[in-house]
Amino acid sequence: MSMGKSIRNRLMPYTFVLPALLLLFLFSLIPILIALVISFTGLDITGLGNWSTVKFVGLDNFVKLFHDSQFLQSIGNTLYYVVIGVPLVVLLSLTVAILINFGNNKFFSFLRLIFYTPSITNTVAVAVVWTYMYNPNMGLLNNMLGKIGIGPLQWLNDPATAKISLIILAVWKAIGLNMLIFLAALQGIPRSLYEAAELDGANWWEQTRHITLPSLRFSIFFVSVTTLIGWFQFFDEPFVMTKGGPLNSTNSVALFVYQNGFQNSNFGYAAAGSFIMFAAIIVATLIQFKIQKKQQGE
Amino acid sequence: MDTNFRSERKLSKGVVGLILAFWGLMTILPFLWMFLSSFKSNAEISQMTQNFLPQHWTLMNYKNLFVSGNFGVYLKNTLIITLASFVGLLFNAMAGYGFAKFKFKGKAFLFIAVLSTMMIPGQVTMIPVYLILNQLHLTNTLLGIILPGLVGAFAIFLFRQFMSNISDSIIEAARLDGASEWYIFWHIILPISKPVLAVQGILTFIGGWNAFLWPLIIANDQKYYTLSVGLQLLQGQHTTDYGLQMAGSSFMVIPIIIIFLIFQKYILQGFNVQAEK
Amino acid sequence: MHFKKILGLAAVAASAILLASCGNNSSKSSSKANDTLTFWYGGDADTAVKPIANEFTKKTGVKVKIQSIPWSQYNDKLLTAAASKTGPDVLVVGTTQMPNFVGSKTLMDITDTVKSDSSIAPDKFFTGSENTTKFNGKYYGLPWYVETRVLYYRKDLLKSVGYNQAPKTWDELYDAATKLSKRGKNMYGFNVDGAEPTFGFMFARQNGATLLKNDKPQFNKKAMVDSLEYLNKFTKNGASPKQDTKLSIGQSFGGNGPVPMFISGPWMMSSIKNDAGLKDSQWGVAELPKGKVSNMSSTGGGDLAVFNYTKNKKNAIKFVKFMSKKENQLKYYKNSDSMPTLKAAWQDESLSDSRIQVFRKQLNNSEPMPLIKQWDQIGQNYLKAWEQIALNNADVQKTMDTFNTQTEELINK
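Above: the input entities. Below: the structure tokens describing the complete assembly.
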């Protein structure tokens, strides 16, 4: 009898994860495996309608990718986005969350909504407004900067500043969601900890450093990992604003994959490109998990 | 000393408020722009000099929005999909709990597998997913529209992270009292997880409300279209009616704001359960 | 506990819906009765196509179920149909997509129909349109609407630099544009369109270039290189912006007209009329200026095709033929501003407007881009090559040599 119970206990965890895993298996993992197979073929639009014409090409796609200067450039751009964008997002959304948590009145709760609006603004509207803001001749930003004697900057028109301009836009969009996650996490910190610290005479900054930040460890980890995964697949902003130009300076791997896979119907080539990206992301994620484990061990 | 501390706090609160107000203004500007533009004519939007406020207020865009398209049907589908996506929320929470608080064989591997589904762009798997749904005879059904997006790695991960934070002693205590695992999950874990459930609830709502790609790809009949698809239909092949787009997106955003205001109350319901940690 | 109640309620409601919708899917196969046609259409079909389809139903008793599909996702939708071999009975295919979907066997060979009915004989349509339906001597669709590109210009501004008419030749175009660009800072004369993949090829043809000879690209030959050199003169002396200005039509063409001349298709007509804030007398359209050899424009548009795996072949063909009747093309033009492909339709009064007639004349001199499945990618690569020339001061001959080799590899693949 106790045997039966222990089996049930051992199976218990699976009943919790099973429904989700089943769906993910069917609609995410199997398609990914199919895509992996496709990456070793020369599948194009002809093959799509007539599978018998699809040729297995081995590692050809991968070899070709590493000789494709546009692909290499888009890898460089993507790394640039990740290295600058991810820390910015984590830092700024954490700052906003902590600042908003500072007050408890109507004004501060209204601010929560305000900082969340970029995530719910329609993409077309975002593109229209930001295109206007970034316009070198008549845009809002150059107008304002001109008043304090700076500029005019070329923003999206200059390969040197285009990437940064897209990062600003993407960070603006990303703060809201991550702020919410941090705010939710901040609620989990017991008030008593702060009260005790206050009695010890710790000021706000000391409390933040020694109580708030350590307690947010799990959520900081979460935001870092998901932001990293997201920024490796940086797509929306260059797709809407620049189509990867000027001079390919804003093209990302995800956009490269899209252009090859969907605009040009080179499905095999595009799939191969996305698996190179996949490998990079999984390595980066595993490193993050390792670091977190180490910190926990300390 | 105490009063000094308090007034200092008041002062810093004011400074923080000021910083946030300025930052917030920069943040909301595009949103306001979208909203105000929905009351401008398309001609005014494409003028040389842009005014923040409409020069001639008009409801034309909203009128056009509701005259064209089958918005009643679209609204119904959108609501169904949104409601159904809350089943997904439950699955995600369950899986997050499973990964956070149980030890089982293959856990690490399975979790990495879950995360890996986030690492491939959706376009690459779109056609395979369609072919699978076609094999299952689910194309042109509501179920086929709902299933592919029902659960997601992001949500599972989020729940896992937050539920890891819950102290084991509460769960152990409940087990000793003879509570079943489902009872613990439903009556202890979920209530404690209110803040993160609220965050994920907002996200789930937005995801369902804005559902676009699968309703379009799976449907072979306009009777399964959603509001987002209806809005996209109004877009020309070469040209965009900006006024109409602004009106459509402003209209779509209202329910989101309402849901946000309802749920954000729960985000702030702190819990002091881990005080004894 | 309040919160949990909401969640619980939602879950119960949602599972009920899921169960209900499970039950639904059995009805799907039976609805495929033989007297209903499915028609895929890009954009909103309610006003544009539905009245004509209703007419068809009245005449034949065959119902037409139109599915409107947003343009932004139309190609995705066609791809899933190609891959799964399930889809509509009749569909609209953009002319540039024809080679792709003929190649994937998504479209039915309707040569017999085309050859057996004189009212839809190939010579009834504009050659440029008809060419987009013909592959290896077989026909895979009927031309439905046509687009060609013409010169849009600001009459008042051109007058101010001494042009009472639109420029008629390349030399005049360059001269007028240069003069107009002298009006001040951020003022241009003409837009060398850095976002339009057909742009350079169009000018190359006007200069006598053959783009492909026996499937071999001729992009680094003198005719094409010279025409790009010509276009590059505009960006070099400031007569044209170096890259897409990202301005709306009101900002670029209206007001003091920073970009007073540009080349585009018929869809710009209503944009200018509605949104540019210009008086009718201030702007006009003209046939393209003539190069060394011609003023050849580039043809686009859409064709009507039958889905290769349809179970409704007879009715599908009947519908395609019905839509291609002169009076129905004209109705479609009235509902949607999409121009008819039947030459005879153009005698109708509804197309007598002098601006519209400019398109009619241009259609005599208009060809689609080469109809090979790699062309989309070649067009994208051209834009990148042009960027190198315009922004990076790359040598034209060298850039085109590279581009040509790249294209050869692409076609031979």
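Note for the figure: Residues 2-38 of chain A form the longest helix (37 residues).
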